[in-house]
Design a protein that fits this description.
Strand content: under 5%
Order of helices and strands: HHHHHHHHH
Largest sheet: none
Structural class: mainly alpha
Helix content: 55-70%
Radius of gyration: 32 Å
């Protein structure tokens, strides 16, 4: 057999050997995206809620000391955890939800008064021809009285917002969220569910804000945005990040 006739065969054999050798050599792994922290989604949500409110901070003003399970004051010591929840400003306190009691009481009072609202002008005209005189003479006092109560509601609403802003920037900050405990967060979330649920009722909302001027309505809307932001972050924190040990209550 001539060498020229063997050349194609030898070339093909050489290529086959090279392919098998190269295929057997382990190749360096292809670059992968770094593993995202399980806080990634919460950080995005946190920024999305707080930046429009001008409340976003890259770092909290106070860090929450997460108890270490390897220390003698760790998470396995319920008394230490309870002390942090009660005394440390970077934690939501078990009684934090009580700050919503004044505005909830005012809202309940005003919406219940709405059920006993006097008849309308059209209905009252059927009862007495003198009613228009009394109605128009007393109308300024009626509007002033209701305006005082509704203005008070907005003031209480804003007071509740002040506490919410502090909680958004410190305890609910992404760097502190895993240190929180579900029990006080759920207590606060329960109050928010009640408060925001009342505002979803058009009749209640009208009774609470129907007489507000433009400036007071703006105050109300700004406060509501803050409370709604905290409500949404509380839901996520309770579901995914807050600690459940120790259990301070069966319902926690």
């Amino acid at each position: 057999m001539h060498v020229q006739s063997l050349f194609p065969f030898l070339a093909l054999l050489l290529v086959s050997v090279l392919v098998s050798v190269v295929g057997g050599v382990p190749m360096p792994p292809s670059p992968r995206r770094p593993h995202q922290s399980n806080l990634y989604q919460y950080k995005r949500l946190y920024r999305a809620f707080l930046q429009p409110l001008n409340l976003y901070l890259r770092s909290p003003t106070i860090d929450a000391p997460i108890p270490s399970a390897h220390s003698n004051r760790g998470t396995f010591n319920p008394l230490y955890t309870e002390m942090l929840l009660s005394d440390h400003p970077a934690y939501i306190h078990p009684l934090t939800a009580d700050r919503l009691n004044p505005v909830l009481l005012r809202m309940t009072d005003l919406t219940n008064r709405g059920e006993r609202r006097p008849p309308s002008l059209g209905d009252q005209r059927k009862f007495s021809p003198l009613f228009p005189f009394f109605f128009y003479s007393l109308l300024p006092l009626t509007v002033l009285f209701l305006g005082f109560w509704i203005g008070g509601f907005v003031s209480l609403f804003e007071e509740a917002t002040m506490g919410a802003k502090e909680e958004l920037q410190v305890p609910l900050h992404p760097k502190n969220i895993k240190a929180q405990h579900t029990y006080p967060l759920r207590q606060l979330l329960t109050k928010y569910t009640r408060l925001l649920g009342m505002l979803e009722n058009p009749a209640h909302l009208e009774r609470l804000t129907g007489l507000l001027g433009v400036e007071d309505w703006r105050r109300f809307e700004e406060a509501l945005e803050v409370l709604e932001a905290e409500n949404e972050l509380l839901k996520v924190a309770v579901r995914e990040y807050a600690q459940t040990f120790p259990r301070f209550d069966v319902a926690a």
